[in-house]
Amino acid sequence: GIDKTWKKASETRTIKNINYEKINSKTIRVYVISQVINAEKPLDTTYTIYGNGDILIENKFTPSKNMIRFGMQMEIIGEFNRMTWFGRGPHETMLDRKTGAAVGIYSGFVKELIHPYIRPQENGNRTDVRWVAMTNVEGSGVLISVLGGTNLSISAWPYTIKDLEEAKHNHELPQRDYITLNVDHRQQGVGGDLPALALL
User: Fold this and answer.
1) Tens of pLDDT along 164-190?
2) Beta partners for residue 59, in sequence order
3) Alpha helix (H) residue ranges in 13-160
4) Domain Beta galactosidase small chain/ spans what residues (predicted)?
5) Cα(first)–Cα(last) distance of the chain, in Å?
6) Residue by residue, what is the 3-state secondary structure of 131-193?
7) Same domain, 94 and 163
8) Which of 4, 23, 29, 190 matches a 20 to 30 Å C-alpha distance to 93?
């Protein structure tokens, strides 16, 4: 079954150490060491911040048990509500439910890319994503791309994960003035026909 202790990983995370170094006049590197549950070693996150606005994020983590997902979640302003991605699409896909979706460049508004399951739950995931852009009507926004050849799983919602967990019906989901953006290195499959493939 699913180990539900992972749900508390973010809220119980504690920062053990933060350091930084100046690489050059236009680059700073920040090192963050965090203690996380179910870990063999602390979570090691490095942010390399460049003068042109680019930020390179590297995460290193060794879990002590199977994970549901490994990634980062952020809130971005609501006007960046158009998602364009290079990956599988156009419909949602998962680790073990993706062969029917071709790799290409797709685009749509966040409200069009979510899937209203009868019981509110996580939805709208796209797999094998090389890059994703969240933009406004003028084309300005945020670009996230992968380095090192490991594709991402991406999803974006006009509500939060807490909203999804608390709602019993879709009409109970609020429309926030910001977007929840999930950027995952890997996410567990849904299982079913081949349960073993549901592992991370």
Assistant:
1) 999 999 999 999 999 999 999 988 888
2) 45
3) 110-113
4) 1-198
5) 13
6) EEEEECCCCCEEEEECCCCCCEEEEEECCCHHHHHHCCCHHHCCCCCEEEEEEEEEECCCCCC
7) yes
8) 4
The residues that bridge with 17 in the sheet, in sequence order, are 33
Boundaries of domain holding 81: 68-200
**pTM as predicted:** 0.90
Distance CA 104, CA 106 (A): 6
Cα(34)–Cα(40) distance, integer angstroms: 12
| Structure tokens given for 171 | 């009409």
Q: Can you give the CATH number for the domain in which 90 is found?
A: 2.70.98.10
23, 49, 67: which is the final residue of a domain? 67
Residues 74 and 58 in one domain: no
Cα(197)–Cα(2) distance, integer angstroms:
14
Count of domains forming the chain: 2
What distance lies between CA 40 and its chain's CA centroid? 22
Which has the closest alpha carbon to 142: 71, 46, 40, 74?
A: 74
Q: From CA 179, how far away is CA 155, in angstroms rounded? A: 10
- Over its C-alpha atoms, the chain yields an Rg (Å, rounded) of 18
Alpha carbon of 127 to those of 96, 183, 185: distances in Å?
10, 10, 10
